[in-house]
Amino acid sequence: MLLTQNAIEFINDNLAIIAPLLIIQVVLMITALVSLIRAEATKGPKWMWALIILFINTIGPIAYFIFGRSQE
Amino acid sequence: MQWLTIYKKECLESARNYRWVWVPLVFILFCIMDPLTTYYLPQILESTGGLPDGATFNIPTPPAPNVFMMSISQINTLGVLVIALITMGTIAGERKSGVAELILVKPVSYSAYVTAKWAAHVSLVLLSVFVGLIASWYYVQLLFGDVSFIHVMSSVAFYVLYIIFVISISLFMNTWTKIPGLVLFLTISVILVLNLITSIFSHLLEWSPTSIVSHLPALLRSGEVGQNLWMAGLITILSIIFLLFGAIQTLKRREIV
After folding, report:
1. Domain boundaries, given as residue ranges, for chain B
2. How far does the CA of residue B36 sit from the closest CA of chain A (Å)?
3. Taking CB atoms and an 8 Å cutoff, what residues of chain B touch A18?
4. Which positions, given as ranges, span the membrane (chain A) (predicted)?
5. Chain A CB contacts of B21 below 8 Å
6. Of A28, B7, B47, B230, which residue is 20 to 30 A from B41 by alpha carbon distance?
């Protein structure tokens, strides 16, 4: 309880500094998802890439953009 | 005219692959990660409980130019890897799939084909490196103290030469083999070997392209461009021209055979 309160306080105090980092990560994730949905085919199943993009922070979207898109 | 067409085609391909979005974003992430973790290091240590009770440990705040150099060394490792990954298939992949033949049967010169591809990748990567380092400068300014914007810009100008050098190595390797993975391996190996040789013989090879990074801290602090840095920049530009010329010649010979 104490810990979460501290964490919330900490985030409130430093929001202006951390916000750009979070926004960039979210934008990267959304771009990767949009690209995944619009792609006709990917290397490997689509649901696998969706999980990778959603749950592996930063590295997931990069991995999808570099290795996931199939060159038809 | 045909040069511009290939250049536009490459930029369009980058846009279709969402590269104009994700490469700048990834470079911004690489660049701001280190200033942020350095700034929050005391809190991170506290929350992970790494220190025993009663232990006092003073973490000195590093000077602002050193923090900016952290961002540059981040680009030097992860950034260079990303650059090599996005350029590895640009000619090799097209030759493998036969697209290169489709383009080169038309009256397109080999030099236009190579330099237009090079220019398209250079524009994308330079934009990303520039945006990333500006973001890093902003955070350093905000969290650590003053670094002169002009000093930062002149360091970026020299560092960018090294990045173009990396792209040129990758394009040169692209003309040697049709396998993108091998291009990646060769590019990274050449850069690693160059780095190794330059750091072992650092007193002899002060003009090597990879030595540009080691000259940057002095430039950031004083703003003076030393003679060694000028020479390293010149050597880098010459190597870029040499690599592009080599790439065109290799491609010509490969296509005839």
Report:
1. 2-256
2. 8
3. 36
4. 15-37, 49-67
5. 27, 31
6. A28
